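Q: Give me the 3D complex with iron/sulfur cluster.
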Amino acid sequence: MDKILRINLSGPDGPSIKTDSLGDYAGLGGRAMTSAVVAKEVPPTCHPLSAENKLVIAPGILSGSAAAMSGRMSVGCKSPLTGGIKEANSGGQASQVLARLGYAAIILEGKPAEAALYKVLINQDGATISEDNSLKMLGNYDVVEKIRGEFGEKVSCISIGPAGEMKMAAASIAFSDMEQRPTRHAGRGGVGAVMGAKGVKVIVVDDAGTGVRSPADPEKFKAANKAFVAGLRKHPVTGEGLPAYGTNVLTNVINEAGGYPTNNFAFGQFEGAAKISGETQAELENERGGKGSATHGCHRGCVIRCSGTFYDKNGNFLSKQPEYETVWAHGGNCGIDDIDAIAMLDRLDDDFGLDTIEMGATIGVAMEAGIAKFGDAQAAIDLVKEVGQGTPLGRILGNGAAVTGQVFGIERVPVVKRQAMPAYDPRTVQGIGVTYATSTMGADHTAGYAVATNILGVGGNVDPLKPEGQVELSRTLQISTAAIDSTGMCLFIAFAILDQPDTFQALLDLISGFSGQPLTADDVVALGKSVLKNEREFNAKAGFTAKDDRLPDYFQTEKLPPHDITFAVSDEDLDQVYNF
Ligand code: SF4
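A: Here is the predicted complex, encoded as structure tokens.
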């Protein structure tokens, strides 16, 4: 990956394309790349939908190689949801494909003068951009179908749905999977709205004629990859739990721990949890889908294979197997225990191009406001359809939980930096509360997944119900996550590398074998810290202060059943997270 593709949408004669050398960005990938570009090139106080903001799409440093699990893509910009820096990452095929074409990043900059919609094609011959207004307001499924008709079955798509075109703060960017379906999303922070503001509907990536990226030290790389895969296969989470049930294996676990946010974070346990658990979902999928229901990877080279396919009652494809976060957001958080309705909501979100976490949290807030009743699945489906249609109510909901709470006068709005909290209540899982409060991204479980240690006992044990040890845990995880997000590796490898020193060493050897440079654990820590430093500096210049590193007040005053506890990590301790 020795070049950057810059597409400027502002030119007087229409968009222009140029290929840059890497310059200051040499050696960076994934989140390290997106956050470095945004920190250096985007004015922190600019409007997120203005010409000054940039959308950066970057494969990880190992993407496009034969390294297992290396196909994650990072998307960065100034977020329309939080007003701070954003990195949202996704699976799907495009990361491997773009890396094989030699691009370390695509940067969309400027803004078209007219309301035109563009299609970008990137292949071995270079990149072209053309106006294609026939794509206007199409859902992601129709976009991919049209692109397949035009370019064939082997290309990958990076696209936005109507929510992105309407520049909603909950809009995602879809990445097509191995079946060429738009099921994988860079969901968080409204990255789809920034792509919409640039007037780019779809980027088609075609790696025909290219080959796998070669490691500098093939023998070391091959041996490390073998040891790394063996380590993933022997760990109970990456070798058994995730492949068998997908991420939804967590519903029963988190519910039993009393940390499953129910009815807009009013309770820590949901009566209907068993009906929407990973175990129930897997049983149903097997029954309806036969062989096609086997779990699989969301991109080439995944060996954990947590992804699956959800079929409707007639055995027809409805959506991907909904992820735990989605099942929670549209399920327990809204009091809904109907797995078919949840899968329909997942499909609608994917098609309109919406973050499932933000949408589920938003509907929970709307239910608290009396717009619909908790447990009313059809009402939730109707509300998401309003978002896709862009009705006045839909435009409020499509801008997320914070806006919805404000419009309807609701105090209990579970957001940090205006981004909705995911599927773990911070009162019962206090370590994830520290991550929600202090992450540069707003409330984000993937920024430092303390649930692993608090609840699953991975990487040690820290009592989830007590404040002691949570700051140190979250700090360590936020640093290591920022580094993993830069490699292109799926974050789920963390379970195995936290627990198994030999698997962590295999990962170091894998990266070192690929680059030809020595790599130690200290280098990984230094990389993670430098990414976070860039992000913190950007946020500070955008106007964020310590008061933004806090949970909403009610998490400190309202006790959560069944443990009847509040979030107890002090403000002074939260301010120590970035003390490195
Ligand atoms: S483990 Fe799951 S999310 Fe990660 S790369 Fe594989 S299928 Fe995608």
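A quick observation: Residues 69, 91, 297-299, 302, 304-307, 490, 492 surround iron/sulfur cluster (CB under 6 Å).
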